[in-house]
Amino acid sequence: MKLKVQCFAVIAALLGGLALVALAQPKSKVRIGYCGPLKDIDAVKSAGFDYMEVRTSEIAALSDADFENAAAKFKQVELPVLTANLFIPANIKVTGPNIDKDRQMEYVRLALDRVSRLGVRLVVFGSGGARQVPEGFSRQEAFEQLVDFGKRIAPEARSRNITIAIEPLRKQESNIINNTTEALAWVNAVNDPNIQLMIDFYHFSVEKEDPSAILKVQDHLRHLHMANPNGRVMPLKWDEYNYGPFFATLRQIHYDRLISLEVSNANLAEGPQAIALLRRAFGD
After folding, report:
1. Which of 144, 205, 212, 141 is nearest to 178 (CA)?
2. pLDDT, tens digit, for every residue of 257-280?
3. Are 183 and 217 in contact (CB under 8 A)?
4. Which of 271, 278, 220, 228 is nearest to 251 (CA)?
């Protein structure tokens, strides 16, 4: 009997210790990154971002030697590369009468090979120029071409442990897939676990989408881009734009993935202030 009591006491102590360890763990935080060219690696690291989002087309266009140098640079500064954007260059069309599927796939394999070597696990499929539907071409056929493209690239992404996330773009940058509803329709039509979607707050705002749209796509939401829509600049102050409803909805769905700042004419010296704003927006 005494031995049993001692055993129970030991087990209770172990469980209590585990509970204390669990309580001591910091709560999970959304990781904040920055979209930029390779020349900004040092500045992105110095600004305190958790990771960098590289430009896929820039990485794919490098010579083998320059790519190895870039990979070495990221390791040297210890800056993770978790995501990539600018997936398909405008000269490789994915809609219209003149698509070249062999050329598409040759580029996709090279691009995914390289970004996966850098550590990328998600590639944003915005690529407005590549997916722009030519004037007079059937929009339904263009959508079917995009679905076919998604089905063809999904296995390539999966074999490299990458997710492709479609990005709804404002109408000034693309004439197809301009909101979350259309993005979800594409994801559902492709019907592959490695094909998902993301939301860019800039495009989301320009297209006047309601934050409730996030609730409809939450099961497929894998990534976010962020900017102050007034000029597409660094978000710095809570009262400079109506950010509240968007982030309230993200907190409601317990979003805990990645968010990358994608801005124009960036001053990376403002990075720490933007990071602090986003931390507060997510309640961290």
Report:
1. 205
2. 999 999 998 899 999 999 999 999
3. yes
4. 278
- 92's tokens: 């490789």
Exposed, middle or buried: residue 137 (CB in 10 Å: 0-12, 13-18, 19+)? middle
Here the tokens at position 55 are: 């430009």
Beta carbons within 10 angstroms of residue 207's beta carbon: 16
Q: Which residue reads 């860019």 in tokens?
A: 200
Quick check: 83 and 129 in contact, CB under 8 A? no
| pLDDT (0 to 100) of residue 29 | 85
> Which residues are CB-contacts of 181 (< 8 A; sequence separation ≥ 6)?
213, 216
- How far does CA 229 lie from the centroid of its chain? 18
Q: What is the DSSP letter of 279?
A: H
Three-class SS of residue 1? Answer: coil
**Does residue 143 register a pLDDT over 50?**
yes
What is the Cα–Cα distance from 141 to 146, expressed in whole angstroms? 9
Mean pLDDT of 146-165: 98
Beta bridge partner(s), residue 259:
32, 224
